[in-house]
Amino acid sequence: MKNKTTSVLRLLAAVASLAILGAVTSTLHAEDAQAAVPAAAASPSPSPVPFAKASVADQIAFLSAAHENSAPPTTIVPESDPGHNAWMMVSAAFVLMMTLPGLALFYGGLVRSKNILSIIAMCFGITALVSVLWWAVGYSLVFGANFTPTGGTSLLGYIFGGTENFFFKGVDSNPNTSYAYWVSQNVFSIFQLTFAIITPALIFGSTAERLKFPALMAFVFFWMFGVYFPLAHMVWGSTGLMNGVWNAAAKIPAIDFAGGTVVHMSSGWTALILCLLLGKRVGHGKEPMPPHSLVLTFIGTALLWVGWYGFNAGSAVAADSIAANAFTTTTLATAVGAFTWPLIEWILKGKPTILGFCSGAVAGLVVITPACGFVNTTGAVIIGVVAGVVPYIFCTVVKGIFKYDDALDTFGVHGVGGTCGALITGILVDPSVNGNLQAVAAPGAPNAAMQNGLITAITNHSLVIAQAKAAGVTIALAVVGTLIIGGIIKLVIGLRPTPEAEHQGLDITDHGEEGYAH
Amino acid sequence: MKKIEAIIKPFKLEEVKDALSEIGIEGMTVTEVKGFGRQKGHTEIYRGSEYTVDFLPKIKIELVVADGVLEGAVGAIVKTAKTGKIGDGKVFVLPVENAIRIRTDETGDKAV
User: Fold this and answer.
1) Does B104 touch chain A (CB under 8 A)?
2) Residue ranges in chain B whose pLDDT is less than 70
3) Helices (H) and strands (E) in chain A, counts
4) A284 in contact with B, Cβ within 8 Å
């Protein structure tokens, strides 16, 4: 009877919260409609015309700008470009594929068969939860701008974006030119959503097989607000603290092409702290815990590699020459990582393993992520070697010395690899592959990278200092955020299942299902 | 009647089965088993974790034969399953009190 009452109460709470969300959305959209009228009336310049009605000269200027991925002329009503948009829709779908099913299979194969569904539930649950958060507030907190006064700066604006895009207000098929001249803002927002999904999903490799599902979902909810949204804004937001390429007022002019700090360092360092808060698996170090299917892990790895083209080359937010360079460097670093890791195993342990190939490939992908749009192919090969060596040492030697139970090596690969990548990007950066790192010719309009000192740092070979600062901010945010959020959840609802439930496996105890019929 | 239990290397199963068929043995029961004797297990390495696997996969063949056939059957198994290396397995011979064929109710040597 008590259970029934609780269920009904939960249902009512869910309905109520949806109703509140709906009410707030409609209010915001109504405000939008009212505000639109005076803004249009106040505009002094001749109003832009639709593309089909523009003069041929204006049409050519418009198409040339799309071809160059440069700012559109003001004579024509802004709209997205089919080519850039097509690539970004494909990229967004690719990055979603990295989580579902890529990461689910990669991690799922590495756990024991009694816990495979807990990994799938983690990936699926995060995808669903983060999508709703992103629509409601997340996108706006990261890519909005109204926390920053026009022409000025503010502390809040450095850390969070704004409120103007809450509930996807104004996020339609027209471009948001702060981020992409030619890509629909709704496509851009979904592309960025897929990053917000995979980042928390990466964390729970370290906590695999012993973190109960309600605690996991609660942690993700608060972690998105406490760590991901602020970090993503600081690095990629147009008003962000560490956005060296695009924010002229960036305090730390660092560069991170596709998420070395935002995605891999944040998830990896969180994973380390959370697995320490959680403690080791029951029987860790005493009983064998081998992967139940390296075949699944292999398939997951291959899906991650393919999906990562959307992640890295897609982060150009255009189908342009920068994307093409990122596509190439991603391939090389991954292949070299996948060569180096098993080679070291072969030399030191006698056999090259499939898990070694998979680990090397993923490490290569991780380390090239912040660098892919900023380094040349030689840089990519060097990065591949680093990716095969440094995370290998952490996963096999350092973990053994300190005896923490980073079950699937999220810290060893993503935390360590992401940190390596952030720093190496500062050393191997090559402005010739990315026009955004070059000073603009027009003397009257210096680009953001000139104003905030990024280009000077690159010229003086001192960019690695800004990169180290950005890495430091990331580590501090991830560590402190995780200690607070994880600590509170541990006190309030607890993090672990009972030892008996853990022994039986989370598939049955948390989800009431088994992955395999025996 | 005697029961023969032979633990052999899995890749020798086909040869052993063929050799037994040649001398007129018409049935046997085969099970995939794991175990160890003097042959050591192997080490599996998953990134930093090394596990020693003690139990090795083997095949257990069980068959019950009339006393007159015993020597030939054991000889066939030993001859074909032998590689000369450690881990070839063992053959055990046990007495059997009786056997009944369920379909026909036949007993004793007729049932095997």
Assistant:
1) no
2) none
3) 23, 0
4) no
Distance CA A194, CA A173 (A): 18
A211 residue type, one letter: L
Residue A385's pLDDT is what? 98
Q: Helix, strand, or coil here: A396?
A: helix
**Mean per-residue pLDDT pooled into runs of 10, chain A (518 residues):** 52 54 51 45 71 95 94 93 98 98 98 98 98 98 96 95 98 96 98 98 98 98 98 97 96 97 98 97 92 98 98 97 98 98 96 97 98 98 98 95 96 98 98 91 75 94 97 98 98 96 97 92
Tokens of A370: 């912040």
Contact call for residues A439 and A450 (beta carbons, < 8 A): yes
ipTM: 0.73
Domain of residue A54, residue span? 44-77
* Yes or no, beta carbons of B47 and A359 under 8 Å apart: yes
pTM of the complete model beyond 0.90? no
* Residue A320's CATH number: 1.10.3430.10
Contacts of B46 in chain A (CB under 8 A): 290-291, 353, 355
- Subunit contact A409:B46, Cβ cutoff 8 A: no
Distance CA A159, CA A147 (A): 9
Nearest to A186 by CA among A80, A263, A315: A80
Minimal CA–CA distance to A304: which of A109, A506, A514? A109
How many distinct structural domains can be found in chain A? 2
B2-111 CATH: 3.30.70.120
CB contact under 8 Å between B51 and A395, yes or no, is no
- Please answer yes or no on whether A409 and B47 come within 8 Å at the CB atom: yes
Closest by CA to A193, choosing from A265, A91, A122, is A91
Query: Do residues A122 and A48 both lie within one domain?
Result: no
For residue A14, being part of any structural domain is answered with: no
- B54: contact with A, CB 8 A cutoff: no
Distance CA A126, CA A217 (A): 7
User: In sequence order, which residues have a C-beta less than 8 Å from that of residue A202 and are 6 or more positions away?
Assistant: A103, A263, A264, A267, A268, A271, A410, A414
